């Protein structure tokens, strides 16, 4: 069913999301990190000599801390200083923004049309950048958003012939700024745990600095955001209904997936950008043309989202996709107004005698076979797959700005 003129809806909501990245006033914490990064870039480029290894600045932060906002601000300012102000040390350099996520690429390409000092070619995927840089020579500053999506092994299907995205980018840049959250690693071929990145830089003899964004801005309840983290990795004392209400945040638990879907449809008509999203516990294939479905109690039966390629395609959350179910890949790095999360069969919610809850993972129910396939001839350990499933749930639970609705497929009680 169409919701009016889809193109008008797209322009309205995409404009709002672009404004959040471009026009938002940075917090004091974000401003401090931005200024430190820009100084780092200037000093690195001015002091660079032929043969020097790249220097790296790492920004860490959990979901919703404004990592992409800061990176977009830094990149815009670097290009303004380079192309308009023509600052010495910058004016003869080419700077790039890389992100290994199709929805984020589309967003940054839209942003590039807003400013005269940004160009479409400034934004790229890591693999494309590496292949092109061999012909162009070293870049000045390379900013990597969502660096937890960088490849950590070869993938011939995706045209990646090297072992590690980051190592190859470092060979082709003078300064690298990257942001990552190890809790958003979702695949074995993009595997960065808490210490992997700094260990790699140390082994390569790369000098690096770090900063951390600690304040969460996406979800309008810090308490619910913290509940989501504990729910995925520790334990919680029930559902966060009281905490959400105190913050004016809409949290609801549904025992009926169809009723949750109907509520999400209602909120999408009111606010836009409200969707059903699910853990990867139903089969799905990009190729072949077959439609795959996600099922739940109450007669819920809706198809997984359909991937649509192309830089000018509207984002999934504002297209006419209210009847589709998104995965962790669909919404990673993206805001929703209201998120209806289906906690599928790979996650068992355990109710303890003391009324607390924790989750246990059933890896046999997880259907993202490509995400947990063997790499370099070895299958991932059950613990690695469990971490991926927990991370995917964490991504889903931290998308909603104004509301979070949860439906659980499997419960267990401990005596």
Give structural notes.
With 415 residues, the chain is α/β, with parallel strands linked by helices. Strand 13 and strand 14 form a beta hairpin. The longest helix has 20 residues. The protein is globular.
Question: What's the SSE blueprint?
Answer:
Layout: H1 6-22, H2 28-47, E1 55-61, H3 67-85, E2 96-99, H4 102-112, E3 123-124, H5 126-136, E4 139-145, H6 165-170, E5 173-180, H7 196-203, E6 208-213, H8 222-233, H9 241-246, E7 250-254, H10 257-271, E8 274-278, E9 293-296, E10 300-303, E11 325-326, H11 328-331, E12 336-343, E13 347-351, E14 357-361, H12 382-397, E15 400-408, E16 411-413
Helix pairs in contact: 2-3, 8-12
Number of helices: 12
What percentage of residues falls in helices of 4 or more residues? 25-40%
Number of DSSP strands?
16
Question: Widest sheet: strand order?
Answer: 3-2-4-5-1-6
Segments where pLDDT lies below 50 for 5+ residues? Answer: 1-11
Chain oligomer state:
single chain
Give, in order, the helices and strands.
HHEHEHEHEHEHEHHEHEEEEHEEEHEE
Brief overview, please?
The protein has 415 residues and is of the alpha/beta class. It has helices at 6-22, 28-47, 67-85, 102-112, 126-136, 165-170, 196-203, 222-233, 241-246, 257-271, 328-331, 382-397; strands spanning 55-61, 96-99, 123-124, 139-145, 173-180, 208-213, 250-254, 274-278, 293-296, 300-303, 325-326, 336-343, 347-351, 357-361, 400-408, 411-413.
